[in-house]
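REQUEST ID: PR-0412
SUBMITTED BY: lab tech R.K.
PRIORITY: routine
TASK: structure prediction, single protein chain
INPUT:
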Amino acid sequence: MGSHPRYAAILCDLGDVLFSWSSETKTTISSRTLRHILASPTWFDYECGRLSEDECYKRVGSEFKIEPSEIAQAFIRARDSLRSNDAFIALIRDLKSQSQNTLRVYAMSNISLPDYEVLRTKPADWDIFDDVFTSGAAGERKPNLGFYKQVLQKIKVDPHQVIFVDDKLENVLSARSLGIHGIVFDDVNRVGRALRNLVGDPVKRGQEFLTKNAQHLESVTDGGIVLQENFAQLLILEATNHRSLVNLFEHTSTWNFFRGKGQLTTEEFPFDLDTTSLGITVTKPSPAIAHSVMDEMLSFVNSDGIIQTYFDHRRPRFDPVVCVNALCLFYSHGRGHELKKTLEWVHEVLLNRAYLEGTRYYETPECFLFFLSRLLQATGDAEIHGLLKPLLRLRVQERVGADGDALALAMRVLVCDSVGLRDEVDLRSLLPLQCEDGGWEIGWIYKYGSSEIKIGNRGLTTALAINAIAAMGVSAIPISPPPSPTLASEPTSPTSATRPSSPPTEGTRVRHKRASSFRTSLQWILPKIQPKSHRPVKDVQV
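STATUS: complete
OUTPUT:
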């Protein structure tokens, strides 16, 4: 994958970001009055080096009817209370270290030279800074644009590759107006997560999460109950092609959703056609076993010709996603024609958008679309491609930009890729949902049909998010919203939307031919990254 540094520098405020005032500081001047003093024009002049400390206190004392000595004493106590935000500084240090010190770190603060001299006596990891810019030395003050322009000129970094962190919105707004990526420092955990997502390589971090949690990538209900089940494990295996990541109870023929006794349902839970279809297509047993299972499955087709969910005639349930997965198994073994009525119903579900509120067993419309794309990638049958692919392309394009959790977004990007669309809009929403541990937020995939208890799996969401980023042919893109998001077309490739990535320890495979065209479409956001080619983008041929 052609990785590039999205950001080359972090620019941080000092006060209330890297350093904090103690809430226990006591002065004879109220905190409200101190805030007014700090916002006064006189204090602005002092911070910009246009007034001495004594002259500042004299003028402020006259303005606020307070003795200058009392003001001086209040600020001495306030300075003494300053403490470094060691956790946040350590995060910045870690980000710089992970970049092998290619990431530069600067401070930019509204602070007078005398106050800065006091601040430098405070114990802190000052070595993380490549330089510190103060209003006292610059003669300018945030949010005035001149201060930012001075700093940009000195650090010689494109503003689009600079991250600015400040606790005041007006200061962040000025930075953004110059093309800098601004973050308001309101919560240390939120800001820390945002910085890791902006600076770190999302694919590498996602792979590290999967490796660290190998064999423990379990599904969880929306009530926090851990489920030991096979289905998500099979999907993770298919997405990563890395058997050591998953915990499977492998079956020789038919499969059960659960790895042991049923949970939150009957303990003796019937084997099902959904997990069985997935299990056989992923683990690839001998053709004899596969055909034997399909023969058995054909005895569970209802009077409408639609294949059912369970190997149990007492549970006559059917679901369009289950049908799609059974079709995937049959078509991959050249027997799709035996489920003609099931295919016709799946087409009607797609045509009439019957999936928009999910299905009996699957939570989101993206699940139906994702497994449909998986079906098309499993077969080269011209008839089924002609029936489903143009319509799938239209239906997924309708979903672009819709609300969705991390799993739905990743699925949407992958489905778009499978039909020759580049979904930059949803990739842009997916990237910030990566957590500090490198995994993505949980996404809901299926649910209990009766109770509608939702089930999700962070490992699956992370595996598909990695593949979604890889499918776009670039390791990362800036998270800031673009001025005009686009959904571009590209010739369909025969590779699968759920094509397995390489093992986490070996890196993820990427379609390099897509990378150049993707970067071409993002030149407004990556002005310094030149595309390797300018191959014209054609519409999808179906």
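NOTES: The chain has two domains: 9-199, 202-473+493-501.
REVIEWED BY: pending
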